[in-house]
Amino acid sequence: MTMLSSELLARLRKVTIMVRTRKRGMHKGVRKSPKFGSSLEFSDFRTYQPGDDLRQIDWNIYGRTKKHYIKRFLDEQEIKTAVYLDSTSSVTAIESKWERAKQLAAALSYITLTSEDKLSFVPIASNEDRILTRKGAVHAKSCLYEIIQWRGDSKAESFTECIQGQLLRDRQLNIIITDGLEPIEKYEMVFNKLGSVRGDVWFIQILSQLEEQPPYVGDLKLIDSETAKEVNISITPKLVEEYKKKQNEHNAKLQGLCKRLGFQYFYLNDAKSIDEILMKDWLSRGWIK
């Protein structure tokens, strides 16, 4: 279990996740909406119009100008965010990949809550079958710890099968953290469903260095981490190169599918630090600000 440093948490408390959708939540938050409303943060004045709330008239200005002006305040909106963490054995079997995936989920959940937004953390294909729902900064640290400590007990089901039954509606932001190793047509089915629930989508694909650059040679028995199916294979340098080529093609198709549907795509391996991902890559992309 690798916790996030206190220095990183201090920086995360000062940032917010940027969401393109303008759909508003039902409750107040701390995000400034382009619309005007009834928060306590003053914006400007405008001339009184019949039907306006008389309580918003600035009588001090009226005393000076004999004209009625209305105070306008910035409205505040809550964003509902769902973080879907791939908890299949495909991810949990490699400790470094599983730790980095949990760190990402925990950090994004922490930012969501410190921004006074509503969080739903959904572990996909986990035997601990429950959704973590929280709202407000008071829950940020405890939620962070709970996700970091999440166990890798997985169901014998695929990620793409499980997530289709766990997608939440009415979320302004849907964040998916997975290794993306299932067939492209499986993800097409998931993405089509995501299109119907609306909201922004971030697809974060994480692989281990071992998966990118397999160090194996010779005759081996490979075991599928999800199905336990065994395959005897002779690994040669040529086969490794062919594997890497097919992997790159697969990842490019995933990225292309995301682009076509207007989803955000980000690829990383478990060698990259959580600090670099959040405070360098995502800041420069405008994902957080």
Describe the structure.
- This protein is of the alpha/beta class and 289 residues long.
- It has 2 domains: 6-12 and 78-285, Rossmann fold (3-Layer(aba) Sandwich), CATH 3.40.50; 31-77, no CATH class.
- The chain is 37% helix and 26% strand.
- The protein contains 10 helices and 10 strands.
- The chain has helices at residues 6-12, 59-65, 89-92, 95-114, 140-148, 159-164, 184-197, 209-212, 237-261, 274-285, and strands spanning 31-47, 69-77, 80-86, 118-124, 132-135, 173-178, 200-207, 218-223, 230-235, 264-269.
- Strands 5-4-3-6-7-10 form a 6-stranded mixed β-sheet, with helices on both faces. The chain has a two-stranded antiparallel sheet with strand order 1-2. A two-stranded antiparallel ribbon has the order 8-9.
- Helix 4 packs antiparallel against helix 5 and helix 7 packs parallel to helix 9 (237-261).
- It is elongated.
- Mean pLDDT is 86; it is low at 22-29 and 31-43.
Topology:
Elements: H1 6-12, E1 31-47, H2 59-65, E2 69-77, E3 80-86, H3 89-92, H4 95-114, E4 118-124, E5 132-135, H5 140-148, H6 159-164, E6 173-178, H7 184-197, E7 200-207, H8 209-212, E8 218-223, E9 230-235, H9 237-261, E10 264-269, H10 274-285
Parallel strand pairs: 3-4, 3-6, 6-7, 7-10
Antiparallel strand pairs: 1-2, 4-5, 8-9
Summed over residues and divided by their number, the pLDDT gives a mean of 86
Largest sheet: 6 strands, mixed
Give helix and strand order, one letter per element, not per position: HEHEEHHEEHHEHEHEEHEH
CATH T-level topology of the largest domain: Rossmann fold
Q: Helical segment tally?
A: 10
Given helix and strand content, the structural type is alpha/beta
Q: Estimate the helix proportion, in percent.
A: 25-40%
CATH homologous superfamily of the largest domain - what is it? von Willebrand factor, type A domain
Number of strands: 10
Portion of residues in beta strands equals 25-35%
Give the low-pLDDT segments: 22-29, 31-43
Rg from C-alpha positions? 23 Å
The CATH class label of the largest domain is Alpha Beta
